[in-house]
Amino acid sequence: MRTSWNDHDWQLIHDAPQAPVLHMALDEALTDAVAGGRRPPTLRIWEWAAPAVVIGRFQSLRNEVDSDAAQRHGIEVVRRISGGGAMFIEPGNTITYSLYAPVSLVEGLTFQESYALMDAWVLEALGQLGIRAWYQPLNDITSDAGKIGGAAQTRRGGAVLHHVTMAYDIDAAKMLQVLRIGREKLSDKGTQSAAKRVDPLRSQTGLPREAVIARMVDTFRRLHGLADDRLHDDELAHAQKLVRDKFGTAPWLADVP
Amino acid sequence: MHGEYKMPGGKLVVIDLEARDGHLAHVQLSGDFFLEPDQALHAINRAPDGLSVDLGENALADTVRGALPTGTQMYGISPEAVAMAVRRALLAEAR
Fold it and tell me: Would the pTM of this model clear 0.90, i.e. be above it?
């Protein structure tokens, strides 16, 4: 049976900065914890300890990333468990969050509807900050000024992971050195350059990153309820094991070479 | 050989492959699409192996569709889009 947001006892995790590869593992560990009933549905706000390129589950490592450039800039390349496109991350430049929810929250919805549902609270928060943002199917959050962010979902067992990275600020020149963004991908998006496609939240709000996050958290709390929680020791241990066994290994990173 | 196809209203579908004695080999699908379960990727990669490079798009798409694990869900990708990317990879080589 389908559930609504308020049927769940939502928890907030907003911990200290963590390594990119640990973030990949935490998404799997926490999705499985919700699927197994060991953790209530949770909103996690990410803080990044290092710059990273995060590629989608099905993206080709060599087609998407200039590994030499990434190494030269000290950028860690990691692969996440959801599909979608590559993201270029520098600490303080993005706002990234994950929702871990029972699939009952999106039961019977099309993919398109479930993406829109999971981010309705964010669009409302952005609206309060003066940004008229909307969902651009399949998985972009955008405004009149340009693309703000991208979402990705994956389902594991009885849980759905929905995570989003929004650009707060961006070094577009560095991004284009590290990511190989092909012409075919832009073919149905007009003649805009890849750099111009993204217009970050800093220029659109004029607010500090922390203020944007605070408004998002307040909005979620008001709409759906939200209790402050933290990462539990066993969850961190599980994620660290996943880093050793999977996310930190070459076979996973190059699973799609 | 390398072919890319941006599915209208969908995502980028990329194929890297080899042709050996007129047959498809080492087909590798990639892109920014969504596919569940994720093992379906490897099933799709294996499906065209050994097929004739002259096989038409419809037959290619049918082969891909038939190889999908039960319950596979695709978002931003389709068997037809995979077939189109395969054809483009082969055409790129022919030029």
Answer: yes
Render each residue's pLDDT in chain B as its tens digit; 95 residues.
999 999 999 999 999 999 999 999 999 999 999 999 999 999 999 999 999 999 999 999 999 999 999 999 999 999 999 999 999 999 986 65
Contacts of A58 in chain B (CB under 8 A): 29-33, 35, 38, 41
Residue with tokens 């029972």: A102
Inter-residue long-range contacts of B21-27, CB under 8 Å, 24+ positions, other chains counted: B22/B52, B22/B53, B22/B54, B23/B50, B23/B51, B23/B52, B23/B53, B24/B48, B24/B49, B24/B50, B24/B51, B24/B52, B24/B53, B24/B86, B25/B49, B25/B50, B27/B86
A108 and chain B in contact, CB less than 8 A: no
**Helix, strand or coil, per DSSP, at residue A117:** helix
pLDDT at residue B17, as a whole number: 97
A102 three-class SS: strand
Nearest-CA distance from A48 to chain B in Å?
Answer: 23
Beta bridge partners of A246: none
Q: What is the CATH number of domain B2-94?
A: 3.30.390.50
For B29-42, write each residue's pLDDT tens digit: 999 999 999 999 99
Q: ipTM score of the complex?
A: 0.96
Domains present along chain A, CATH in parentheses: 5-251 (3.30.930.10)
